[in-house]
Amino acid sequence: MEKVLGLKCRECGEQYPKSPVHVCEFCFGPLEVEYNYEEIAKRISRQSIESGPYSLWRYADLLPVDGEPICGFHSGFTPLIQAKNLGNELGVKQIYIKDDSVCRPTLSFKDRVVAVALSKAKEFDFDTVSCASTGNLANAVAAQAVTANLNCFIFIPSDLELGKVVGSQIYNPTVVGIHGAYDDVNRLCSEIADVYPWAFANINIRPFYAEGSKTLCYEVLEQLGWRSPDHFIAPAAGGSLITKIGKSIKEFQDLGLIEKSPTQIHVAQAEGCGPIVNALKEGSDFIKPVRPDTIAKSLAIGNPADGIYAVETVNKSGGCGEHATDAEIVEAMKLLAATEGIFTETAGGTTLAVTQKLIQSGRISTDESIVVAITGNGLKTVEALDDEVSPPHLIQPQLSTFKELMTTL
Ligand SMILES: *Cc1c(COP(=O)(O)O)cnc(C)c1O
Ligand SMILES: [Zn+2]
Fold it and tell me: How far apart are CA 112 and CA 104, in angstroms?
Protein backbone atom coordinates (compact mmCIF):
# COMPACT_ATOMS: atom_id res chain seq x y z
CA MET A 1 0.00 0.00 0.00
CA GLU A 2 1.12 3.53 -0.75
CA LYS A 3 1.42 6.16 1.96
CA VAL A 4 -0.25 8.91 -0.13
CA LEU A 5 -3.83 8.25 -1.24
CA GLY A 6 -4.22 11.35 -3.39
CA LEU A 7 -5.62 14.86 -3.01
CA LYS A 8 -8.82 15.89 -1.31
CA CYS A 9 -10.82 19.13 -1.40
CA ARG A 10 -10.80 20.86 1.99
CA GLU A 11 -14.32 22.15 1.39
CA CYS A 12 -16.43 19.45 -0.31
CA GLY A 13 -14.23 16.39 0.18
CA GLU A 14 -14.00 15.56 -3.54
CA GLN A 15 -11.01 13.28 -4.17
CA TYR A 16 -8.37 13.65 -6.87
CA PRO A 17 -5.47 11.45 -7.95
CA LYS A 18 -1.92 12.63 -7.20
CA SER A 19 -1.43 15.31 -9.85
CA PRO A 20 -0.28 18.93 -10.18
CA VAL A 21 -3.65 20.50 -9.36
CA HIS A 22 -4.53 22.70 -6.41
CA VAL A 23 -8.15 23.83 -6.77
CA CYS A 24 -11.35 21.74 -6.66
CA GLU A 25 -13.21 21.68 -9.99
CA PHE A 26 -16.54 21.61 -8.23
CA CYS A 27 -16.32 24.19 -5.46
CA PHE A 28 -12.95 25.96 -6.05
CA GLY A 29 -11.81 24.87 -2.59
CA PRO A 30 -8.08 24.19 -2.04
CA LEU A 31 -6.81 20.61 -2.30
CA GLU A 32 -4.81 18.90 0.41
CA VAL A 33 -2.65 15.77 0.38
CA GLU A 34 -4.44 12.77 1.85
CA TYR A 35 -2.38 10.08 3.56
CA ASN A 36 -2.94 6.47 4.39
CA TYR A 37 -2.16 6.78 8.10
CA GLU A 38 -2.70 3.09 8.77
CA GLU A 39 0.11 2.31 6.37
CA ILE A 40 2.32 5.07 7.80
CA ALA A 41 1.73 3.81 11.36
CA LYS A 42 3.28 0.50 10.36
CA ARG A 43 6.48 2.18 9.20
CA ILE A 44 7.04 5.09 11.54
CA SER A 45 8.34 5.19 15.11
CA ARG A 46 10.49 7.47 17.24
CA GLN A 47 13.41 5.12 16.47
CA SER A 48 12.83 5.13 12.71
CA ILE A 49 12.84 8.93 12.73
CA GLU A 50 15.88 9.19 15.02
CA SER A 51 17.88 6.91 12.75
CA GLY A 52 16.96 8.95 9.64
CA PRO A 53 19.06 11.56 7.83
CA TYR A 54 19.94 14.87 9.50
CA SER A 55 17.57 16.83 7.29
CA LEU A 56 13.84 17.30 6.81
CA TRP A 57 13.86 13.95 4.97
CA ARG A 58 13.97 12.14 8.33
CA TYR A 59 10.17 12.72 8.20
CA ALA A 60 9.82 11.37 4.63
CA ASP A 61 7.14 8.88 5.75
CA LEU A 62 4.88 11.90 6.36
CA LEU A 63 5.78 13.79 3.18
CA PRO A 64 4.13 13.40 -0.25
CA VAL A 65 7.22 12.30 -2.20
CA ASP A 66 7.13 8.72 -3.49
CA GLY A 67 10.65 8.15 -4.77
CA GLU A 68 14.03 9.49 -3.68
CA PRO A 69 14.13 13.25 -3.07
CA ILE A 70 16.26 15.26 -5.49
CA CYS A 71 17.17 18.23 -3.29
CA GLY A 72 17.01 19.52 0.28
CA PHE A 73 19.52 16.91 1.49
CA HIS A 74 20.84 19.42 4.01
CA SER A 75 17.66 21.45 4.56
CA GLY A 76 15.88 21.52 7.89
CA PHE A 77 17.27 19.92 11.07
CA THR A 78 17.88 23.41 12.43
CA PRO A 79 18.64 24.15 16.10
CA LEU A 80 16.03 24.51 18.82
CA ILE A 81 17.67 26.86 21.27
CA GLN A 82 16.67 27.25 24.89
CA ALA A 83 16.81 31.04 25.10
CA LYS A 84 17.90 31.76 28.68
CA ASN A 85 18.93 35.39 28.23
CA LEU A 86 15.77 36.21 26.30
CA GLY A 87 13.72 34.35 28.92
CA ASN A 88 15.28 36.44 31.70
CA GLU A 89 14.57 39.61 29.76
CA LEU A 90 10.91 38.64 29.23
CA GLY A 91 10.43 37.05 32.65
CA VAL A 92 9.59 33.55 31.40
CA LYS A 93 11.21 30.27 32.39
CA GLN A 94 10.98 28.08 29.27
CA ILE A 95 11.31 29.85 25.97
CA TYR A 96 12.80 28.20 22.90
CA ILE A 97 13.82 29.62 19.55
CA LYS A 98 13.33 27.36 16.53
CA ASP A 99 16.10 28.87 14.46
CA ASP A 100 15.32 28.58 10.75
CA SER A 101 17.39 31.71 10.12
CA VAL A 102 20.14 29.15 9.48
CA CYS A 103 18.15 26.71 7.34
CA ARG A 104 20.19 25.53 4.34
CA PRO A 105 20.73 26.54 1.59
CA THR A 106 19.04 29.97 1.60
CA LEU A 107 18.57 30.83 5.27
CA SER A 108 14.81 30.65 5.65
CA PHE A 109 12.16 28.04 6.39
CA LYS A 110 11.17 28.16 2.69
CA ASP A 111 14.00 25.71 1.98
CA ARG A 112 11.80 23.05 3.59
CA VAL A 113 8.74 23.59 1.41
CA VAL A 114 10.83 23.92 -1.73
CA ALA A 115 12.71 20.65 -1.10
CA VAL A 116 9.35 18.88 -1.16
CA ALA A 117 7.91 20.96 -4.04
CA LEU A 118 10.83 20.42 -6.41
CA SER A 119 11.16 16.72 -5.60
CA LYS A 120 7.47 16.38 -6.42
CA ALA A 121 7.81 18.53 -9.57
CA LYS A 122 10.45 16.12 -10.84
CA GLU A 123 8.16 13.15 -10.10
CA PHE A 124 5.49 14.90 -12.19
CA ASP A 125 8.09 15.25 -14.98
CA PHE A 126 8.29 19.03 -15.05
CA ASP A 127 11.55 20.46 -16.37
CA THR A 128 10.84 24.05 -15.28
CA VAL A 129 9.96 25.35 -11.83
CA SER A 130 8.68 28.76 -10.86
CA CYS A 131 7.06 30.76 -8.09
CA ALA A 132 5.43 34.03 -7.07
CA SER A 133 7.34 35.18 -4.05
CA THR A 134 7.88 37.84 -1.40
CA GLY A 135 11.58 36.93 -1.54
CA ASN A 136 12.49 33.91 0.55
CA LEU A 137 10.55 31.44 -1.59
CA ALA A 138 12.27 32.87 -4.68
CA ASN A 139 15.70 32.36 -3.09
CA ALA A 140 14.90 28.76 -2.15
CA VAL A 141 13.40 27.83 -5.53
CA ALA A 142 16.31 29.42 -7.43
CA ALA A 143 18.98 27.69 -5.32
CA GLN A 144 17.40 24.26 -5.17
CA ALA A 145 16.53 24.30 -8.91
CA VAL A 146 20.31 24.31 -9.42
CA THR A 147 20.73 21.16 -7.30
CA ALA A 148 17.77 19.52 -9.00
CA ASN A 149 18.87 20.51 -12.54
CA LEU A 150 15.59 22.27 -13.33
CA ASN A 151 15.00 25.48 -15.29
CA CYS A 152 13.76 28.31 -13.14
CA PHE A 153 11.59 31.44 -13.48
CA ILE A 154 11.17 33.76 -10.50
CA PHE A 155 8.41 36.38 -10.14
CA ILE A 156 8.74 39.00 -7.39
CA PRO A 157 7.37 42.45 -6.55
CA SER A 158 9.74 45.12 -7.91
CA ASP A 159 10.31 46.72 -4.49
CA LEU A 160 11.92 43.80 -2.64
CA GLU A 161 14.97 44.13 -0.40
CA LEU A 162 18.27 43.98 -2.33
CA GLY A 163 19.45 40.91 -0.39
CA LYS A 164 16.42 38.97 -1.51
CA VAL A 165 16.79 40.02 -5.16
CA VAL A 166 20.52 39.21 -5.36
CA GLY A 167 19.80 36.10 -3.28
CA SER A 168 17.85 34.77 -6.26
CA GLN A 169 19.88 36.25 -9.15
CA ILE A 170 23.12 34.60 -8.04
CA TYR A 171 21.70 31.21 -9.05
CA ASN A 172 20.97 32.43 -12.60
CA PRO A 173 17.23 31.88 -12.89
CA THR A 174 15.15 34.25 -15.04
CA VAL A 175 14.05 36.90 -12.53
CA VAL A 176 10.99 39.00 -13.37
CA GLY A 177 10.14 42.00 -11.18
CA ILE A 178 6.51 43.07 -11.30
CA HIS A 179 5.33 46.62 -10.73
CA GLY A 180 2.77 45.79 -8.07
CA ALA A 181 2.31 44.08 -4.72
CA TYR A 182 2.71 40.35 -4.08
CA ASP A 183 -0.99 39.77 -4.69
CA ASP A 184 -0.61 41.22 -8.21
CA VAL A 185 2.42 38.97 -8.80
CA ASN A 186 0.46 35.94 -7.65
CA ARG A 187 -2.51 36.75 -9.87
CA LEU A 188 -0.25 37.11 -12.91
CA CYS A 189 1.47 33.82 -12.07
CA SER A 190 -1.87 32.01 -11.94
CA GLU A 191 -2.48 33.19 -15.50
CA ILE A 192 1.02 32.18 -16.59
CA ALA A 193 0.54 28.75 -14.98
CA ASP A 194 -2.51 28.22 -17.21
CA VAL A 195 -0.42 28.81 -20.34
CA TYR A 196 3.08 27.50 -19.58
CA PRO A 197 3.72 23.90 -18.48
CA TRP A 198 5.71 24.84 -15.38
CA ALA A 199 5.57 23.70 -11.77
CA PHE A 200 4.73 26.78 -9.68
CA ALA A 201 5.76 25.90 -6.12
CA ASN A 202 2.93 27.86 -4.54
CA ILE A 203 0.28 27.50 -7.24
CA ASN A 204 -0.28 24.23 -9.14
CA ILE A 205 1.86 22.09 -6.81
CA ARG A 206 0.91 24.02 -3.68
CA PRO A 207 -0.72 21.03 -1.90
CA PHE A 208 2.64 19.20 -2.01
CA TYR A 209 4.76 22.29 -1.29
CA ALA A 210 2.71 23.16 1.77
CA GLU A 211 3.35 19.77 3.38
CA GLY A 212 7.04 20.66 3.70
CA SER A 213 6.10 23.23 6.38
CA LYS A 214 5.18 20.41 8.72
CA THR A 215 8.83 19.51 9.18
CA LEU A 216 9.58 22.68 11.15
CA CYS A 217 7.09 21.59 13.78
CA TYR A 218 8.00 17.86 13.67
CA GLU A 219 11.56 18.85 14.52
CA VAL A 220 10.43 20.97 17.45
CA LEU A 221 8.38 18.08 18.83
CA GLU A 222 11.33 15.72 18.49
CA GLN A 223 13.84 18.23 19.87
CA LEU A 224 11.68 18.89 22.94
CA GLY A 225 12.07 15.18 23.74
CA TRP A 226 8.92 14.01 21.97
CA ARG A 227 6.42 16.41 23.44
CA SER A 228 4.55 19.51 22.34
CA PRO A 229 5.00 22.92 23.98
CA ASP A 230 2.26 24.86 25.77
CA HIS A 231 2.53 27.69 23.22
CA PHE A 232 3.76 27.86 19.63
CA ILE A 233 4.08 31.32 18.06
CA ALA A 234 4.63 31.57 14.31
CA PRO A 235 4.30 34.24 11.62
CA ALA A 236 1.85 34.08 8.73
CA ALA A 237 2.03 35.27 5.14
CA GLY A 238 -0.21 32.94 3.11
CA GLY A 239 -1.13 31.13 6.33
CA SER A 240 0.21 27.74 5.31
CA LEU A 241 2.85 27.35 8.05
CA ILE A 242 0.26 27.99 10.77
CA THR A 243 -2.15 25.36 9.44
CA LYS A 244 0.68 22.84 9.10
CA ILE A 245 1.80 23.36 12.71
CA GLY A 246 -1.69 22.28 13.72
CA LYS A 247 -1.57 19.34 11.34
CA SER A 248 1.86 18.08 12.43
CA ILE A 249 0.95 18.10 16.13
CA LYS A 250 -2.23 16.16 15.37
CA GLU A 251 -0.38 13.66 13.19
CA PHE A 252 2.29 12.98 15.82
CA GLN A 253 -0.42 12.57 18.46
CA ASP A 254 -2.54 10.25 16.32
CA LEU A 255 0.52 8.15 15.44
CA GLY A 256 1.38 7.87 19.13
CA LEU A 257 4.73 9.64 18.72
CA ILE A 258 3.81 12.27 21.34
CA GLU A 259 1.26 12.46 24.14
CA LYS A 260 -1.98 14.34 23.62
CA SER A 261 -1.32 17.58 25.51
CA PRO A 262 -2.73 20.90 24.38
CA THR A 263 -0.63 23.38 22.43
CA GLN A 264 -1.97 26.86 21.78
CA ILE A 265 -0.95 28.09 18.33
CA HIS A 266 -0.62 31.88 18.06
CA VAL A 267 -0.18 33.82 14.84
CA ALA A 268 1.97 36.90 14.33
CA GLN A 269 1.49 39.47 11.57
CA ALA A 270 2.51 43.06 10.96
CA GLU A 271 0.01 45.81 11.67
CA GLY A 272 0.57 46.98 8.06
CA CYS A 273 -0.52 43.58 6.71
CA GLY A 274 -2.49 41.51 9.18
CA PRO A 275 -5.58 40.10 7.47
CA ILE A 276 -5.44 36.81 9.40
CA VAL A 277 -4.97 38.53 12.77
CA ASN A 278 -7.74 41.00 11.89
CA ALA A 279 -10.15 38.11 11.29
CA LEU A 280 -9.18 36.47 14.59
CA LYS A 281 -9.66 39.70 16.53
CA GLU A 282 -13.01 40.37 14.88
CA GLY A 283 -14.13 36.78 15.48
CA SER A 284 -14.79 36.50 11.77
CA ASP A 285 -14.35 33.34 9.72
CA PHE A 286 -13.63 35.07 6.46
CA ILE A 287 -10.60 37.12 5.41
CA LYS A 288 -10.90 40.73 4.38
CA PRO A 289 -7.98 41.38 1.96
CA VAL A 290 -5.72 44.34 2.80
CA ARG A 291 -3.19 46.41 0.85
CA PRO A 292 0.19 45.67 2.51
CA ASP A 293 2.25 48.50 3.99
CA THR A 294 4.97 47.15 6.28
CA ILE A 295 8.72 46.52 6.52
CA ALA A 296 7.90 42.82 7.04
CA LYS A 297 7.85 42.23 3.30
CA SER A 298 8.21 38.46 3.55
CA LEU A 299 4.83 38.45 5.33
CA ALA A 300 3.20 41.03 3.06
CA ILE A 301 0.43 38.97 1.51
CA GLY A 302 -2.81 40.94 1.56
CA ASN A 303 -5.07 38.10 0.44
CA PRO A 304 -3.69 34.93 2.06
CA ALA A 305 -4.55 31.66 0.26
CA ASP A 306 -4.80 29.67 3.49
CA GLY A 307 -6.08 32.55 5.62
CA ILE A 308 -9.35 31.01 6.74
CA TYR A 309 -7.69 27.70 7.54
CA ALA A 310 -5.05 29.50 9.60
CA VAL A 311 -7.86 31.22 11.54
CA GLU A 312 -9.53 27.85 12.07
CA THR A 313 -6.27 26.24 13.27
CA VAL A 314 -5.57 29.02 15.76
CA ASN A 315 -9.13 29.05 17.12
CA LYS A 316 -9.27 25.29 17.47
CA SER A 317 -6.01 25.29 19.45
CA GLY A 318 -7.27 28.01 21.82
CA GLY A 319 -4.60 30.40 20.54
CA CYS A 320 -4.87 33.97 19.32
CA GLY A 321 -3.47 36.46 16.85
CA GLU A 322 -1.59 39.70 17.47
CA HIS A 323 -0.08 42.48 15.36
CA ALA A 324 3.31 44.17 15.61
CA THR A 325 4.05 47.67 14.36
CA ASP A 326 7.13 48.32 12.21
CA ALA A 327 8.85 49.98 15.18
CA GLU A 328 8.09 46.99 17.42
CA ILE A 329 9.41 44.63 14.72
CA VAL A 330 12.77 46.46 14.61
CA GLU A 331 13.00 46.54 18.43
CA ALA A 332 12.38 42.80 18.60
CA MET A 333 15.03 42.10 15.93
CA LYS A 334 17.50 44.04 18.08
CA LEU A 335 16.36 42.25 21.25
CA LEU A 336 16.90 38.78 19.75
CA ALA A 337 20.36 39.80 18.56
CA ALA A 338 21.28 41.33 21.93
CA THR A 339 20.04 38.40 24.04
CA GLU A 340 20.64 35.30 21.91
CA GLY A 341 23.10 36.35 19.21
CA ILE A 342 20.57 35.58 16.48
CA PHE A 343 20.12 38.00 13.60
CA THR A 344 16.64 37.48 12.21
CA GLU A 345 14.78 39.27 9.46
CA THR A 346 11.62 41.33 9.85
CA ALA A 347 9.39 38.22 9.96
CA GLY A 348 11.30 37.00 13.03
CA GLY A 349 11.02 40.46 14.56
CA THR A 350 7.26 40.30 14.02
CA THR A 351 7.00 36.92 15.74
CA LEU A 352 9.12 37.89 18.73
CA ALA A 353 7.34 41.24 19.13
CA VAL A 354 4.02 39.40 19.26
CA THR A 355 5.44 36.87 21.75
CA GLN A 356 6.48 39.78 24.00
CA LYS A 357 2.96 41.21 23.86
CA LEU A 358 1.35 37.88 24.75
CA ILE A 359 3.67 37.50 27.74
CA GLN A 360 3.27 41.11 28.91
CA SER A 361 -0.52 40.91 28.72
CA GLY A 362 -0.53 37.68 30.74
CA ARG A 363 -1.98 35.71 27.84
CA ILE A 364 1.03 33.41 28.24
CA SER A 365 2.06 32.76 31.83
CA THR A 366 5.63 32.81 33.02
CA ASP A 367 6.10 29.10 33.75
CA GLU A 368 4.63 27.73 30.52
CA SER A 369 6.78 26.38 27.68
CA ILE A 370 6.96 28.63 24.62
CA VAL A 371 8.37 27.97 21.16
CA VAL A 372 9.00 30.94 18.87
CA ALA A 373 9.44 30.15 15.15
CA ILE A 374 12.23 32.33 13.76
CA THR A 375 11.82 31.76 10.06
CA GLY A 376 14.31 33.98 8.25
CA ASN A 377 17.73 35.64 8.35
CA GLY A 378 18.44 39.31 9.06
CA LEU A 379 21.21 39.68 6.49
CA LYS A 380 18.49 39.64 3.83
CA THR A 381 16.62 42.64 5.25
CA VAL A 382 19.36 45.05 6.40
CA GLU A 383 17.30 47.94 4.98
CA ALA A 384 14.99 47.59 7.98
CA LEU A 385 17.89 48.64 10.21
CA ASP A 386 18.84 51.84 8.34
CA ASP A 387 19.51 54.47 11.04
CA GLU A 388 18.88 51.82 13.71
CA VAL A 389 22.42 50.62 14.36
CA SER A 390 25.24 53.02 15.18
CA PRO A 391 27.91 53.33 12.47
CA PRO A 392 31.45 52.07 13.21
CA HIS A 393 34.00 54.40 14.79
CA LEU A 394 36.29 55.41 11.93
CA ILE A 395 39.93 56.02 12.87
CA GLN A 396 43.44 56.08 11.39
CA PRO A 397 45.49 52.90 11.92
CA GLN A 398 47.43 54.26 14.94
CA LEU A 399 47.44 53.07 18.54
CA SER A 400 47.38 56.66 19.77
CA THR A 401 44.21 57.39 17.82
CA PHE A 402 42.59 54.26 19.23
CA LYS A 403 43.56 55.33 22.76
CA GLU A 404 41.98 58.69 22.08
CA LEU A 405 38.80 56.94 20.97
CA MET A 406 38.81 54.82 24.13
CA THR A 407 38.71 57.96 26.28
CA THR A 408 35.47 58.97 24.56
CA LEU A 409 33.62 55.62 24.90
C1 LIG B 1 6.92 32.70 3.69
C2 LIG B 1 7.39 33.05 5.05
C3 LIG B 1 6.57 32.87 6.18
C4 LIG B 1 5.12 32.50 6.15
O5 LIG B 1 4.75 31.47 5.39
P6 LIG B 1 3.23 31.10 5.04
O7 LIG B 1 3.26 29.64 5.10
O8 LIG B 1 3.01 31.64 3.66
O9 LIG B 1 2.31 31.74 6.03
C10 LIG B 1 7.13 33.15 7.40
N11 LIG B 1 8.39 33.60 7.53
C12 LIG B 1 9.19 33.81 6.48
C13 LIG B 1 10.55 34.35 6.70
C14 LIG B 1 8.71 33.53 5.19
O15 LIG B 1 9.52 33.75 4.16
ZN1 LIG C 1 -14.49 20.94 -3.55
Answer: 9
Q: Which residues surround ligand 2, an ion (CB under 5 A)?
A: 9, 11-12, 14, 24, 26-27, 29
Question: Is residue 72 scored above 90 in pLDDT?
Answer: yes
Instruction: Judge if 4-71+110-209 and 80-106+213-385 fold alike in CATH terms.
Output: yes
Distance CA 20, CA 137 (A): 19
Residue 286 confidence (pLDDT): 95
**pTM score above 0.85:** yes
> 113, exposed or middle or buried, with CB in 10 Å at 0-12, 13-18, 19+?
buried
SS3 assignment, position 102: helix
Q: How many A from CA of 242 to the centre of ligand 1?
A: 9
* Pairing, β 199-200 against β 128-132: parallel
The pocket around ligand 1, CB under 6 angstroms, is made up of 108-110, 136, 213, 235-241, 298, 345, 347, 375-376
Please tell me the distance from the alpha carbon of residue 271 to that of residue 350, in angstroms, as a whole number.
Answer: 9
CATH class of the domain whose range is 4-71+110-209: alpha beta
Does residue 236 contact residue 203 with C-beta atoms inside 8 Å? no
- Rounded CA-CA distance 311/188 in Å is 26
Q: How far is the CA of 244 from the centre of ligand 2 (A)?
A: 20
Quick one: how many helices (H) and strands (E) in the chain? Answer: 15, 13
Asked if 235 contacts 241 with a C-beta cutoff of 8 angstroms, the reply is yes
> What's the confidence (pLDDT) of residue 125?
97
Ligand 1 centroid to Cα of residue 298, in Å, is: 6
Q: What is the pLDDT of residue 1?
A: 78
Counting ligand 1 atoms within 8 A of each CB, the residue from 137, 298, 372 with the most, and so the one to mutate, is 298
Q: What is the pLDDT, as a whole number, of residue 360? A: 98
**What does each C-alpha distance from 91 to 219, 229, 339, 348 come to in angstroms?**
26, 17, 13, 20
Has residue 285 got a pLDDT over 90? no
Note whether 64 and 113 are within 8 A (CB).
no
CATH topology of domain 80-106+213-385: Rossmann fold (3.40.50)
The interaxial angle of helices 240-254 and 214-223, nearest 10 deg, is 50
CB-count burial class (<10 Å; 0-12, 13-18, 19+) for 392: exposed
Domain locations in the chain?
Answer: 4-71+110-209, 80-106+213-385
